[in-house]
Amino acid sequence: MRISMLLLMIALLYFTSHAQQWTKEQYTKDFDYFLNTIKEDYCYWDKKQTDWEKVKAIYIPALDTITAKGGFVLLMEKLFYELYDHHASLNTNTAASQRLVPSGTDLWAEYINGKPVITEVRRDFGAYKAGLKAGMELHAFNDVPIEQAIQPFLGKSLKTVTPEAKSYALRVLLAGTHLGNRKVSVKDKGMLYDFYPDQPVNLLEEHRYEGNLAVRSYGDIGYLKINNSLGDNNVIVSFDSALNSLMHTRALIVDLRETPSGGNTTVARAILGRFITKEMFYQKHELTAEQRQYGVKRSWVEIVSPRAALYSKPLIVLVDHWTGSVGEGIAIGFDALQRATVMGTKMAGLNGANYSYTMPNTGIGFSFPVEKIFHVNGRPREDFLPKVLVKLSDNHATNDVILEMALQQLKKP
After folding, report:
1. Angstrom distance (rounded) from CA 206 to CA 226
2. Positions of E strands within 19-170
3. What are residue 356's DSSP bridge partners?
4. What is the structure's pLDDT at 56?
5. Is 80 in a helix, a strand, or coil?
6. Signal sequence: where (predicted)?
7. Are 179 and 5 in contact (CB under 8 A)?
C-alpha cells in the first residue's frame, strides 16, 4: 500500500511540474460544464441512486488543490465514480488512473449474496495465465482487504449503496492503475492464495492482437473471431473476405468475446447485413433528454439492410463479459433478426449509446450514455441474456467451455 501511495505521489508531482497549467477559474468552468452536461443529457438517472446535486458540494473544495491537468483528470474521474457506469469515462487518463472496464481489465467480479466473487476471467490475459478462476472469493487487493479497497471507487453522493454500485467499484479496483502491478488475494475451498496477474509481463498494457480477425475451421464448421476492431471501418472489408472464405462451411461461429472497446453501427450493420435477405429492425433507441426538456418522448427503431453474398447456414454467436457496447448491439441484433443462437455468459451490460463532449478550457474529452438502447422486443440491451446462458466455474479454468458447447451443438445432426 505504501508503494502504491508513493507511486501516486510521484505521478502527481510529475504532472504538476510538466503538464500545461490553467487558472482556477478555468478549471472551475470546466468542472461546472461537466456537471451540467451530464445532468442535462445522461439518460440513466432513473436507475441510479446518485444525488447529482450533492456532487458539486462534495468535490468543489478539491479544486483549490489543483495546480495541473493531471490532478484535474484524477478529480474528474472521481466524479464519474458517482455514476457507477462503466460506459461513462474521460477520453484521457494519467499513469495513476484506473484502467477502464471492460477494455482494461481481465477480471469480472460481482457481489453475490454479499460476497465479492470472480465470475469470469478474460482468456489469455494475465489473470487467466496466473491461475485465477471463476468462483473464487476475493479477499484482498494489494494487501488491502476488499471492503476497504473498494471505498475510493464508491460514490459519495449515493442515497443507497446498492450491490450494483459495489460491484462497479470492485471491478474498477481489480482493473488496477496504469502505473502499478496487482496482487490479488482470494479464498478458494477454505484456503487463501495470492496471485500476481501482471507478472512477468503486464498484458493489459502490452497485449497486441495478431490481426483484427481470427479465422479458422473446425472440420466443416467455420469460426470467425473479431479482435476488438468494431470501431475500424476497414474491418468491413476484412470481415467480408473472411466470411467469403467460409461460405463452403455447413455452419458458422462468430465470436464477439473480445470486443470490449465497442465500435460504431456502420460496422455492426455491415456484419448483420451478410446474414439476412430483407430489411429488418435490429435495435431500438430512446433519447431521454428531449422528453425531460419538453415532455415529448423521442424513440426510433434502426434498420439493417442485406448486402453482398448471403450466408444462410446455421450460426452461433459467442458472447461474454468482454462483449461491450456495439458488440452487445450486434448480439441483440442477431437475436432480434432470429438469425443466430447467442451463447455465452451475460455481456458487459454497458448502458446505451455514448455521445462525446469536450471541456471548453482544458480540452479534456468525456463520453457517457445519452441514448438508451433496447432489443426490438423492448428489453434494455444491458439486461439481455444469451439464449444459451453458460454458467462458468473453476472447472472451466483451462477449457474454452463456451466454444466447446457451440461446436457440440453445431455437430449435432
Report:
1. 19
2. 89-90, 107-112, 115-121, 137-141, 144-145
3. 367
4. 96
5. helix
6. 1-19
7. no
Asked if pLDDT for residue 9 goes beyond 80, the answer is no
Cell of 106: 481481465
H helices of 176-298, in order, are 203-206, 235-245, 265-272, 288-294
303-315 pLDDT, tens digit per residue, is 999 999 999 999 9
Kindly report the CATH class assigned to 208-349+384-411.
alpha beta
**DSSP-derived 3-state class of residue 262:** coil
Q: Quick one: residue 228, left, alpha or beta (phi over 0 = left, psi -120 to 50 = alpha)?
A: left
How many whole angstroms separate alpha carbon 286 and alpha carbon 134?
A: 35
In the chain, ranges of CATH 3.90.226.10 domains: 208-349+384-411
What percent of the chain has a predicted confidence (pLDDT) above 90? 89
Phi–psi pair at 295, nearest 5 degrees: 75, 15
CATH numeric code, 98-207:
2.30.42.10
Residues of the chain within CATH 2.30.42.10 domain(s) are 98-207
What is the distance between the alpha carbons of residues 330 and 316, in angstroms, rounded to a whole number?
Answer: 12
Q: pLDDT, tens digit, for every residue of 343-378? A: 999 999 999 999 999 999 999 999 999 999 999 999
What is the torsional sign of CA 127, 130, 131, 137?
Answer: negative
Instruction: State the Cα–Cα distance between residues 150 and 144, nearest whole angstrom.
Output: 9
Whether 340 and 381 have beta carbons less than 8 Å apart is answered as no
How does residue 4 score in pLDDT terms, banded at 50, 70 and 90?
Answer: very low
pLDDT tens for 196-206 read 999 999 999 98
Burial of 141 (0-12, 13-18, 19+ CB in 10 A): buried
Residues of the chain with pLDDT > 70: what percent?
A: 94
State residue 161 phi and psi, 5-degree precision.
-85, 105
β-sheet bridge partners, residue 372: 286
The pLDDT assigned to 300 comes to 97
- Which grid cell is 304? 439493417
Rounded mean pLDDT of the chain? 93
The Cα-based distances of 374 to 41, 87, 339 in angstroms read 18, 16, 18
CA-only gyration radius of the chain, Å: 22
